[in-house]
Amino acid sequence: MPFNGLGLSDSLLKAIGELGFEKPTPVQAKAIPLILQGKDIIASAQTGTGKTAAFGLPTLDRLEPGKRIQCLVLEPTRELAQQVVDALESYSKHLSTRVGVVYGGVKYGRQREMLDKGVDILVATPGRLLDHIGQGNISLKNVQVLILDEVDRMLDMGFLPDVSRLIKMCPKDRQTLFFSATIPAAIQSMMKWVLSDPEVIEIGRNRSAAETVTHAFYPVVQQQKYDLLIKLLEQTQFESVLIFTRTKLNADLISRRLERLKHSVAVLHSDRAQGERTAALKGFKSGKFEVLVATDIAARGLDIAGVTHVINYDVPLNAEDYVHRIGRTGRAEKEGDAFTLLTEDELKNAAAIEHFVGQKIDRKKIEGFDYMYSRLFEEEEKTASRKANSRAYGRLSR
Ligand code: ADP
Ligand code: MG
Predict the structure, then answer these.
(1) Which class would CATH give 213-385?
(2) Which numbered atom of ligand 1 lies nearest the CA of 49?
(3) CATH node for 3-202
(4) pLDDT tens across 188-234, in order?
(5) What residue's CA is closest to ligand 1, atom 25?
(6) Which of 9, 75, 186, 267 has the lowest CB atom count within 10 Å?
């Protein structure tokens, strides 16, 4: 089905054409008509499948430009808020709808000026939004559409108190849209009070990694983790690689060590000043840096064209973060590869991830690396011989 069968206005179709979008992605084809009808939505679709346009395009179509905040989009990180407002701006090029963004880590002045001029759609991170509301710069009383992007993150323990407060400040009589790559069933029941008779859209198997990403675990002993990382980088034809670490300290350490090896490296975590964060991301996007070392702050939503590889230096503690992290590659139908270093003490987390994605993830060894012994290798051999036995048995019993 082409874009022009979905009921979007000509101004939007023109912008879509200029962006080079030829046909709607599956989540766009399902969500756009329903959102245009004013329905509440819970939509899950894999990483990199165009969820921003799925909620952005029909919402832009429904609003009458009027310079009061009629639509609020909540995002978990500053970088993601900026990316979403940039996307909305590109879709609304031929409309008079105004979009704006507020997030922390930068001065209030410019944000206040923008708010004074008036916007129709506001994209925000919760903390800074509450600050502006407290200062009387923002009112949510005209909100007709409330969008929670990365909704499972927005409703987890860290964000829930702020987000609940914000939801209560919006008029009851509104449209509410939930989007994410991972939506636990619990959210649907827990959030009954937020949604009204929602339509559920599920593209692909909820919780699964994008089909365009190949991923595997690389067992290794703790002492050899860094060496294996270097070996992986050496052996890989990467154009641009995103390395995730669990801690900010490790992100800094690894980036410094890679710099010494003459890689061009940037680092992104929440202890960096916002100016440094912006520069790191911009430089990585433009190709100035071939490696970005980041904490989970970069795990969700960021759309960086051409990330060929993701390396998890540590297994993420939350299973859903795994799906989001590896989803930074393989976007918009490109292919991507994801490696996860796995040590013995991380086996439990690895098992949780396999349970979450509903599949056993391959264990791989790389050629030409002088591995120290790990118990993990034995586990592999056991499973391998079990598999061989059961195959033999399968043949006999037939
Ligand atoms: P998600 O939120 O599902 O992870 P994004 O909204 O960030 O994905 O979109 C991923 C990329 O796909 C973006 O670069 C976006 O411009 C592009 N994209 C979105 N819709 C289409 C489409 N219909 N055709 C081609 N590319 C698209
Ligand atoms: Mg997204």
Answers:
(1) alpha beta
(2) 3
(3) 3.40.50.300
(4) 777 888 999 999 999 987 666 777 888 999 999 999 999 999 999 99
(5) 21
(6) 186
